[in-house]
């Protein structure tokens, strides 16, 4: 595998993993909309862990969700998927570091290192899928409530935390797929054995020195 390709794939996966850690604690997963409101006294914004409100003077207060079991099903699933994405991304970073040819970890067995790098690519893809499912599911519920005319609660719009999550999932999937394709197209190294060439030299020399039984003198 080309070392430049390795570094590029690792950089994409690592950046996607970092952005998961940025998106998860971000408070602006959804922000209350001003559409249809004549007077807005406060802005409400939420994420997977807490709900915050900020008044017109800039003072904000936050409260954590009191009970896990009292939350909606998509909130619980989004939490689990995001935490799983962080764990998968961490394992993918370690596996890719071990599988890179420029690293000393794993010895000089490049076939084994290529397989470990392929495992890292799979982990990056799984991380990206978990992140994309989580943020897309959360955004779907926001849009569903926003366009529902009979919804009695506060309507929200998509916040910056979801955009960070989408960027994270895209980078992780791209890095993992490129790493897998690079490992698939790479074949095992052909090892040349010196004793084979020596045998060929001996055999060729012997065939040249062996006299032929059907020489011209045999018919005289």
Q: What does this protein look like?
A:
The chain is an alpha+beta fold. 58% of the residues lie in helices and 10% in strands. The chain has a domain at 3-29 and 69-187: Butyryl-CoA Dehydrogenase, subunit A, domain 3. Strands 4-3-2-1-5 form a 5-stranded antiparallel β-sheet. A hairpin with a 4-residue loop joins strand 3 and strand 4 (60-64). Helix 1 packs parallel to helix 3 (110-146), helix 1 packs antiparallel against helix 4 (160-185) and helix 3 (110-146) packs antiparallel against helix 4 (160-185). The radius of gyration is 31 Å and the shape is elongated. The chain starts with a helix and ends in an 11-residue tail after the last helix.
Which features does this protein show?
single chain, 220 residues, 10% strand, membrane
Outline the secondary-structure elements.
Elements: H1 3-23, E1 30-32, E2 42-46, E3 50-55, E4 60-64, H2 73-99, H3 110-146, E5 156-158, H4 160-185, H5 194-209
């Amino acid at each position: 595998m080309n070392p430049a390709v390795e570094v590029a794939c690792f950089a994409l996966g690592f950046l996607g993993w970092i952005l998961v850690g940025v998106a998860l604690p971000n408070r602006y997963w959804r922000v209350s909309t001003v559409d249809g409101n004549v007077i807005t006294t406060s802005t409400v914004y939420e994420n997977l862990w807490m709900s915050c409100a900020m008044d017109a003077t800039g003072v904000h207060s936050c409260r954590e969700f009191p009970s896990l079991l009292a939350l909606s099903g998509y909130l619980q699933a989004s939490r689990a998927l995001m935490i799983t994405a962080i764990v998968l991304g961490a394992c993918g970073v370690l596996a890719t570091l071990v599988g890179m040819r420029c690293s000393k970890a794993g010895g000089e067995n490049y076939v084994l290192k290529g397989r470990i790098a392929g495992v890292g690519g799979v982990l990056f893809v799984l991380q990206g899928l978990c992140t994309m499912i989580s943020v897309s599911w959360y955004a779907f519920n926001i849009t569903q409530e926003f366009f529902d005319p009979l919804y009695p609660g506060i309507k929200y719009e998509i916040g910056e935390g979801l955009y960070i999550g989408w960027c994270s999932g895209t980078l992780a999937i791209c890095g993992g797929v490129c790493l897998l394709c690079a490992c698939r197209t790479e074949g095992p190294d052909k090892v040349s054995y010196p004793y084979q060439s020596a045998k060929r030299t001996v055999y060729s020399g012997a065939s040249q020195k062996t006299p032929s039984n059907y020489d011209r003198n045999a018919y005289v």
